Amino acid sequence: MSDPTCLPFAFPSVRGKKLTAAFDGGRLTSDGGVLLLAQAAQRRGIAEKLAAVIPDRRDPSRVLHPLPEILLARILAIACGYEDADDLDHLRADPAFKLACGRLPDSGADLMSQPTVSRLENTPGLRDLIRLGRVLVDLYCASYAVPPAAVTLDIDDTCDVVHGQQQLSLFNAHHAERCFLPIHVYDTATSRPVAMILRPGKTPSGREVRGQLRRLVRATVSYTHL
């Protein structure tokens, strides 16, 4: 009988240290899957590409946490269900999250704390946000080995309920909730995400949707035969 605890894949080394999955104790984490997410994110260079379009106005001589690392930790935390920035206050010492961000679990320094994440999230301006959105579209386009002859996009808004008085959250009568109403765009043929646009909790007008479509078409036209 095969051993059900054997993993059918190997993790890459971190700073020259071998990484082995085992079940015999030691420092434990409940988020081992974050290592798989980190491999996927690093393979596509998601954090690095996002960081490249955000201005970093910090004093380089005093920087402890590079922008790509902050973004990667935040992305991985959200993907694991930790949506609040202050979750990083305890995840920063988690061995799996440290490994996922390229730091050794014991001897490596802890990851960033919530204030560092919050300062980053309040840094980008409108133009930076547009560039961040363009990075996501570029990642989608690059997911095709060969540009498709045509692309059909599914565009819809989704009720994102808030629990407080967050900026831009509004009461939406249709959903009977105070919420954001982000626009999600997917490729109907592959179900791949194309873009997500955070917006106030009011139903988007046709003019707003046309504007988003125009930007998406401009961003994807070089990859397709439209």
TrEMBL record:
The organism's taxonomic lineage, starting at the top: Bacteria, Pseudomonadati, Bacteroidota, Flavobacteriia, Flavobacteriales
InterPro entries: Tnp_DDE_dom, Transpos_IS1380
Protein's UniProt name: IS1380 family transposase
Domain Transposase DDE residues, every copy: 12-221
NCBIfam families named among the record's database cross-references: transpos_IS1380
